[in-house]
Amino acid sequence: MFDDRYTLAYKLYPYERSADQDKAAPVRHPVVVMGGGPIGIATALDLGLQGIPVLVLDDHEGVGMGSRAICFAKRCLEIADRYGCGEPMLDKGVVWNVGKVFHKDDQVFEFNLLPEEGHKYPAFINMQQPYYESFQIERLRELQAQGAPIEIRGKNRIDNVEVKDDHVVIEVSTPDGPYTLEADWLVGCDGASSPLRTMMDLEFTGKVFQDSFLIADIKMKGEVDFPTERWFWFEPSHGEGASMLLHKQPDDVWRVDFQIGWDVDRAEEMKEENIRRRLDAFLGGVDYDMVWSSIYTFQCKRMDSFRHGRVFFAGDAAHQVSPFGARGANSGMQDVDNLGWKLGLVINGKAPDALLDTYDTERVHGADENIMNSTRSTDFITPKSNMSRLLRDSVLALSDPYEFARPMVNSGRLSVPCTYDGSSLNSADALDGPERTRPGSSCPDVPLGDDFLLSKLGNDFILLTINADAPDEIHEDGVVVKRLALTTNSDPTGMLKERYLGDATSAVYLIRPDQHVAARRPNFDENQIRTAISRATGKE
Amino acid sequence: MSDLILTPNINGVDDFYAELIATHDGLSDEDSQALNARLVLVMANHIGDRATLSQALAAAALKSEE
């Protein structure tokens, strides 16, 4: 039996019998990725771009139906850009900046993300998840055509794993029957209910929130005057839901999200007539088609550790948050960004195994930050106690007449990249520079003529020099660091100075392949930079 | 950063207390609770200083500092 668990939007990697299935002994692969969702495919892109052979096993044959994640943040798009698939996403996605918050019928608060100028990517785009996944897979096919050692096998379901000291034995089911594989490294990107976690008997702990949300994605017929903004209602006066969200997607599709309580009859609520009843109460006489609907509940949980010897967990498999704040797929992409280069260096024998432990420490830090923000939003949107509700309602009541209460309104604090403060890979900050580019930070973009700084950083270690001399290349124990030389003479917008120099007149930044700052100082000092490279690769 | 004042600090404290009670006159328990909650938020914003606010929360919870 090999039944699909869900309907496909696009069949992109149909099952094909692999030569591995006919071998007498299990074939060993350097890296196997479990799951072909956005995080699994990103892992394949990252490793494939480094020339590391990677095999993705997915129990389906393509991208699942349904909009699901719709909100993709700047850092997530920058990572996709590094993999070569950010631009089609930007072309397809809906860019938005304004959000409005209503309490009952009254608007209590309006915010503008006021995107900072001089970045290639906006703060957010909205786009249905199947588009996101398809753009990644298109890129993967392009890389394969160029010879990147990436393979995806559809309808290859991992049923069992045995974790050894130096490899993992993997039992796979296919429509042609089972076979066995081995992997030096296994990356679990198999989603919130991660079968791999269960197979390895690993805990996933945290809070479950007692509420359900009904998603209805609809396409309006005729003229609709909703602007491209995020609208959020607390206690909407039509009474259909304790809160409600309206958000635009590409193809004139609107996401409507109703908070419908914990004790609901899911089958009953999912009937089209009942969904339409709620939508009609909100929309009045507007005519619309229903595109997709779903009911979800959520939890804020994570694994104790994202590394278990030869096995890594990434994305929802490692940590799950509420949807408020767009932190699911966005933080999963940052996991991959963090793991890819570390695994690449270790596989190529250029860094010690200890570097891989920093994937766990850095991304647990990121997950905790996301869980904290997401839990706070959730507590505001669905208060757990009478007093919590009373204080929430008081904030809403005060936020219309008084400006001070408006920042307390929390309908989701939107995802920003995590700064790895205190990471063992950072060197002490030796520059009197801007706070936002201190060691551990993800590099903010800067316009450079027709191009942008992040595009020039690429996928390797970079020594960024601003008004400073340095060798064009540094080789330190197998790790190659290339120089990117910039000066404030070619900084017409002044943004390079503002974001990377501050009061300093010159700077040298050591930047990791995931575009996070490892070290910075006012000038090139060979010993200091070599030490910083050793440190950033887990050798100190 | 300043310490939370826990010594008498309101001029005409009897007037203030009477005004506080009077503001609640005629309200249901529910409305009174809501008024108190709004009052806490208004005063917290006026204080502003995070450390002082933490001290105030601890003082109201009758947690004595060692």
Give your account of this protein's structure.
The complex is a heterodimer of chains A (540) and B (66). Chain A is α+β, with helices and mostly antiparallel strands and 540 residues long. Among the domains of chain A are: 8-94 and 119-204 and 301-370, FAD/NAD(P)-binding domain (3-Layer(bba) Sandwich); 435-536, Glutaredoxin, CATH 3.40.30.120. In chain A, strands 2, 3, 10, 11, 12, 13, 19 and 20 form an eight-stranded mixed sheet that branches. In chain A, α1 packs parallel to α4 (129-145), α2 (74-82) runs parallel beside α8 and α8 runs antiparallel to α9 (354-381). Chain A is globular. Chain B is mostly helical and 66 residues long. Chain B has a domain at 28-66. Chain B has three helices and no strands. Chain B has helices spanning 13-24, 29-47, 50-60. The chains are: A alpha+beta (540), B mainly alpha (66). The A-B interface holds A 387, 390-391, 393-395, 397-398, 402, 404-405, 408 and B 33-34, 37-38, 40-42, 45. Chain B: InterPro entries: DUF2783.
Characteristics:
heterodimer, A: 540 residues, alpha+beta, FAD/NAD(P)-binding domain, Glutaredoxin, eight-stranded mixed β-sheet, 13 helices, 28% helix, 29% strand, globular, B: 66 residues, mainly alpha, 3 helices, 0% strand
